[in-house]
Every structure is written in C-alpha cells, then in structure tokens.
Specification:
The chain is α/β, with parallel strands linked by helices. The chain is built from six helices and four strands, in the order βαβααβαβαα. It has one domain: Response regulator (Rossmann fold, 3-Layer(aba) Sandwich). It is 41% helix and 13% strand.
Length: 160
C-alpha cells in the first residue's frame, strides 16, 4: 500500500488563491493529498465568492471550505509546500526553517508570482486562476517524472 504524498499550498488569507490552487492540484495530482492554509489566514472564513465563481463547476469543491492558519504540524507533515509569491516562500522558511528545500513558489518553474486578487474584480481572479493552472501543469509534469524515477525530493529535480 502506497502512502499519499502531502502537498500544502499557501497564500496570505487562504480565501482566494490557495483554495483555488487546492482544487486545481487536487484534481490534477493523483497520489497526493492537497491542503491549503494562509500565512495570515482569515480563519474559518469561506472561500471568496469570486474564487468559487471563476472555478465554475469545479467550485463545488469549495462549498464547505474554511480558511486555516498554517501551523508547525502542517509545515512538518507536508512533503512539498507551494507559495504564491517569493516573499511568502521566504516567510514560511523564516517561520519554519526545516521546510527549506521543500518550500517553493508556485510559479517556480515558470518564473512568476501569482498576484493576490483579493478586493479586486473578477478579472483579477480569472487571471490568478489562469496562472495557477499553468503552474499546476508544470508541477504535475515534474512530480510525475520524479515519481517515475523514484526521486522523492523536488530539490533533486531542481538541480538536475
């Protein structure tokens, strides 16, 4: 019996970007348990209505969603942590130094941050979702390649 890998996706409030990314990654990565949290979470809040809306039918996955604050236990158990921005990556590494080598920016392979759409119009949410989908495809390709080669560290792939 194979254990599922654990992926933790972080943003600031855990109501916009990371919940959308949680849905996208959950649907595209088999063998991975995907969760999300915030570095300054709006704890127990529902996902932003715009986030649910731009996901369309996939938004149903967020109906019972509630925002969570990252904690040491979450950081420790995650095999891979993805943040929306370079600053968030640095912040999570400051809070939990042991995650270095397991924390990466969502746009690591594509060279960009995913801007926060909070408080902006639906177009900003659509743009964030589009970038998340691009990143998810890049991560999926690399994670599946590593699993096929029995490589367990993203860092090994990064230096290949």
């Amino acid at each position: 019996m194979t254990m599922a890998h654990e992926l933790l996706i972080l943003c600031t409030g855990n109501i916009c970007r990371s919940p959308m990314a949680q849905v996208i990654f959950s649907q595209s990565l088999s063998g991975w348990q995907v969760a999300s949290a915030g570095l300054a979470a709006v704890v127990d809040s529902a996902a932003a209505p715009e986030a649910v809306s731009v996901l369309g039918d996939r938004g149903e996955a967020l109906v019972n969603f509630r925002a969570r604050q990252i904690g040491a236990g979450m950081a420790r158990s995650a095999e891979l942590i993805l943040t929306m921005t370079r600053d968030q990556k640095e912040r999570v590494e400051q809070l939990y130094p042991w995650v270095r080598g397991r924390a990466f920016r969502l746009g690591h392979w594509d060279g960009f941050d995913v801007e926060d759409p909070y408080g902006r119009d639906v177009t900003a949410f659509e743009r964030a979702l589009s970038l998340i989908e691009i990143c998810a495809a890049s991560w999926k390709d690399r994670l599946m390649t590593m699993e096929n080669r029995n490589v367990t560290s993203v860092e090994a792939e990064q230096h290949a």
